[in-house]
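For the sake of transparency, this paper describes our internal protein records without simplification. The tokens are whole numbers drawn from a learned vocabulary of local backbone shapes. One such record is reproduced below, unchanged from the form in which we store it.

. . .
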Amino acid sequence: MYKYPNLDKLLLRRTFLLGTGKCLLFAGVLGRLIYLQIFESNQYKLLANKNRISLRLVNPIRGIISDRNGKLLALNKNTFRILCIVDNKVELRKVLFKLSKFIYLDNFETKKVIEDFSKKKRNQPYLIRENLKWNEVSSISTNSFLLPEIMIESGLLRKYPFKQIAAHTIGYLAPPLSSEIKKEPILGLMNINVGRFGIEEYLEKKLRGIPGARHLEVNAYGRIVRELRKENSKSGENIKLSIDIELQKYLYSMLKNKSGSIVAINVQNGEIIGMTSAPSFDPNFFHQGLSESEWESLSKDPLSPLVNKAISGEYSPGSTFKMIVLLSAFKNKILKKNSSILSTSKFKLGDRTFYCWCHKKKTGCYAARNRQRRVKPKLALAQSCDCFFYELSRRIGIRKIADTALNFGIGKKTGINLQGESTGLVPTKSWKKKHIGKSWQLGETIITGVGQGYITSTPLQLALATAIIANNGKKISPKINLKESNFETNEINNDIDQNSNEYQEYFSIIREGMYDAVNKHIGTAYSSRLSKPVFAGKTGTVQVRTITEEERETEIIPNSQLPFEQRDHSLFVGFAPYVNPKIAISVVIEHGGSGSSTAAPIAAKVFKKII
């Protein structure tokens, strides 16, 4: 007799339940497998291929940049570079540690590589270093079995053979910023540098080209097993600039140990044949980024080597602005060609006294030598008679002066094919009220008339205005890329009728005054005259400090005895040849002293070099 009479039934029920559970579990697994194999096969095949197949972009060949004569200013050099495939910074640090046993990696480079890793796209090769030396390539290749995450591939490195000579105009390449990658994600896949500054930045997309693609089968380390398919890249456009690099070298030599700019422009078509800014920098140093100390040295230099002073430097134009004031007087019928203004060595306005530049000097304009004299426009320009222009500005008024200045390109962007152009400033009553919160004073009109006070301009604007005077009022826009016109044309909208005999006569009077300034013994630039080519121009001396009335009445401290930053800026604008002008230039030397002593002699040498 069984002790447990219901045991068989109990075991049978449990066996049934267990078997049913197993069948259900097996059916579930089988159903899931069928679902994955049949209904989800494409998705998982795609996921599998993502691990096995890698899409890698083929970097296009960047377009080269040449000068007007075909000399290469920016080119591509064959090189080798190190890349690795890792998923996180921990793995990257391990790879860099192993790599440092075979090539030298300094702390700054290692830190930067790790910091920039956040820009990297998953499963894409990450650039560690470019421009490898042969011994580094050999060392890594020999020990490649110890560095499975590392690969070496050939590439192109941007080279600038003329270094500092045209750095501000050409620009340089540097790694893309996170903000740029966010805006243009493809940059994070390409392991390339992008344009910074100058033409490299302005024409970045044209120069860069269009990337191709390689569909690759890779192993677990990301190394290539075989190439499945390839789509070719499209090279970037080659760019020819209007500048002449030989002239550019000469201009740069003229600014040795100086801070400033020289711009040379074709007066007929606006082509920039030379444009330099000093001090400068070597663009070859930027391709993998500067160290903190190197960047600080450049960015905090008081002479601002990273600023393109030709288009971004804003300076009071000084007496180079007097041609614009004279044109405004002619245009607004305030002055006739044979009119004269009584000038002395001082100009009184209420309780204020405005002095001529050569007050109390033994040489200079006749009126300033304690005489009263009626001065005509040509003589006023030749001798740069301040008192003449004080009175003339009072008669014209700031609104009309401002209108003429803007019509000749002062105080607004010229539209040149470069980034970072400044507008300068032509002040008005409304501008002062809006930005300073005070009413305009007549005395401010007086000093604006001699190019001082609030008014500022760039060296390019001064060269452009001079070119328009030289070509009799013809509208031109500056350009530096010979292949095409400006992308944003900003032609000077001067409203002087070129076909009007009256206005042509006014331009002629101004050019004659500029001729006398250089070629007559009474002129401020007479010591810089040339027998060939004969050129015309106007000097400018810009105060950067306040000269007291007591100093005016005794003796003004010479520039040579002042601290560098308190010395006057030296300016000159001019054109050559005087008959049938071809070239206009502007020279600005920061804290260089008088325009006649520094800028004018430089301009004469430049004209002699060009013509």
